[in-house]
Amino acid sequence: MDPVALEILRNALTAAAAEMDVTVWRTSRSTVVRELLDYSTAIFDGNGENIAQAARIPQHLNSMGAGLLTVLRDHLPAERWQDGDVVITNDPYCGGQHIPDILAFRPVFVDGARVAIVGTLCHHLDMGGMAAGSYAAAATEVFQEGLRIPPLKLVKAGVLDEDILAMMRQNVRRPDMLWGDLQAQLASLAVGEANIRRLAARTGADAFMAACARMLDGSERAMRAMIARIPDGRYEFEDFLDNDGISADPVRIHAAVEVRGDEITVDLSGCGKQAVGPINATLASSSSAVSYCIMAIADTEIPANAGCYRPIRTIAPEGLIVNARHPAPVANRVAVTHRLATTILGALHQAIPGRVPAAYYGVSYVCSFQTINENGERGVLVEIEVGGSGAYADQDGLSGYTFGMHNNFNIPAEMIESEMPLTVTGYGLLPGSGGAGKHRGGLGLFREWRIDSAEAIFTANLERFTHRPYGLEGGEPGREGRLFVTRDGERTAYGSKVNNLRLRRGDIVRLETSGGGGYGDPAARGPEARARDVALGYVEV
Question: Where is the signal peptide (predicted)?
């Protein structure tokens, strides 16, 4: 296959992953998938290596391949996969992320050869456990976080296993939403398989597999060339998580990034020990943050696939918060990966100043509501809010903008109010929340929900309430996050971790997210920029 044909095929594979993406979006049921877009799709070669992906969530895309390889190596060898099978798992210790995320894979056979595997990952609305949304802030074991599904075949040779589905439906709060989103995943896999079959039929199975190997090699060469342009050296940085929800003690996140020639080693040995509470991450999750950071600093376009990971080495001893040992709880594992991202980028700023922005909000502001009406009917809402991005050397940060390990949308207020007994009483940018600097950090958000049901149960897994997003080159940090509940006119402040708080009709929950860090000396900000900040309400006067 000549270089032009190879590039055409690479783009065709990316388009196939994008069509899988659109299929999930158009057929899913829950707001966390349909509106928040908390899902990803990717295509892997026959050995489980990522070769193409849609433009979805870095947290997912950089770890789906590791999850698939774990399944193939430790649980279901490739020889046991048949045409028409669909393998699923959500077990964090069997290749998964955290329990709400269900991975689903389907092999693609052409002329009897397994030429590819297509995959989807969806964050499901609820998978059981001690809190709605399976995001318990007080869990101390993974067993408390919901239904764990080991790698198994939900579909065998094209036939759905009704017994497995029944078991799953029996253990979740909204079985209709679970099944609806699972169907969206199955439809997406079918679309991906059909597209890969057509492509491989045109090239032939052997030529297709050889082309996939060349794509991986090409991305590896491009990544090595990019790394070689970074000055050799060892660069260190640290940041902290507020707490684990059980203890008030902060948790250290430390990264030592060593650049040698065309390879990078990221040593996470200085991170804190795994926590009692659910802010731990498995190595697959933490490695996704490492891969994201190295790809994010690239000074040229590099096709994203598993070849990019080959020059990157991660050191993370088991038992640390970045490589938790079973059965540590991992519901809020993005607390670690967001903070890892800002920490690694802080280290890389020392190597390539001017290319790396100040810290973004660096947390998934996850809140879940379970509403209960007089007739006992239960509703579940999972919200994931964002904040402000960090400023750059040459421009302000973006406000209310999904950044870093994220790529989520927001759930429209109208959609929430049409499906849940909740009213969104306020939503907007938060003046003064961005860090000051020559270039100002982006603003965080505020959002308020009023309880309109007889009662409700509220859980929050938040961060950045104590340790603010850092600024660079003299820029100030972004403002911390805050959480309040107003009842009968009296407002009460809460910490960043809240588990199964009982609410009643009329209570108002207000979340304020952190802004991004500033870049450069605030005194260097020009008068025109200052006047614009005031005119647009970006700063508090």
Answer: none
